[in-house]
Design goal:
Layout lengths: L1 H6 L5 H11 L8 H13 L3 H14 L2 H17 L3 H7 L7 H13 L3 H12 L7 H13 L3 H14 L5 H4 L2 H12 L7
Length: 192
């Protein structure tokens, strides 16, 4: 992420933190944009807990039209920070946001509630904003374990195409790589 930001002309995260901390004033609603950038910067620096705390504050003070976006960012930061319980408390089972429902599915999956996670992951996969790597990987794994190999192909593809190569071994298991190889052998990825 840091290299992408530098190519885009943005300063490295470490050098943005101080100026953004000075710009953001929790008492001033007009500084919400600076707060969002500061929370993103915390995430880039690996300080997901600080980012999540700030997103929670921002959500509480933001105008209504920004709250869903901030809630989505908060929930994603909680997942990075391993706070699945908070995700489960905040996101309703009938949440219309694909991204939020997907994050609920990820939280349930990580808690070992595989069957309970599947409807939320599947719902998210059917939405544009829910087709993200954290949703795709557990969905692919569940489809593969159920023997629904064709259904596992598209989520695994998204993981392969969106995860930086150096991070794939951190995110994927040997079983994931074996599944992808088998899917490729069966012709699922002829265009890769």
């Amino acid at each position: 992420r840091e290299a992408d930001r530098e190519r885009d002309g943005r300063r490295p995260a470490a050098s943005r933190r101080g100026p953004l901390q000075r710009l953001y004033d929790p008492a001033d609603p007009s500084t919400v944009a600076a707060g969002i950038l500061l929370a993103e910067t915390y995430g880039e620096l690996g300080e997901s807990a600080a980012g999540a705390t700030l997103y929670a504050k921002l959500e509480a003070q933001a105008p209504c039209e920004r709250r869903r976006e901030l809630r989505e960012r908060l929930v994603q930061a909680w997942l990075v920070d391993g706070k699945e319980a908070q995700v489960r408390q905040l996101v309703a089972a009938d949440e219309p946001s694909g991204l939020l429902r997907g994050c609920l599915g990820v939280a349930l999956y990580r808690a070992g509630e595989l069957e309970a996670s599947l409807p939320h992951l599947a719902y998210a996969w059917q939405t544009k904003d829910g087709r993200i790597e954290p949703v795709a990987l557990p969905l692919a794994r569940l489809a593969w374990k159920r023997g629904n190999f064709h259904a596992a192909a598209a989520p695994y593809r998204l993981v392969i195409e969106t995860t930086p190569v150096d991070l794939l071994p951190k995110h994927c298991t040997r079983e994931d790589f074996a599944a992808v190889v088998e899917l490729a052998r069966c012709g699922e990825y002829d265009d890769l």
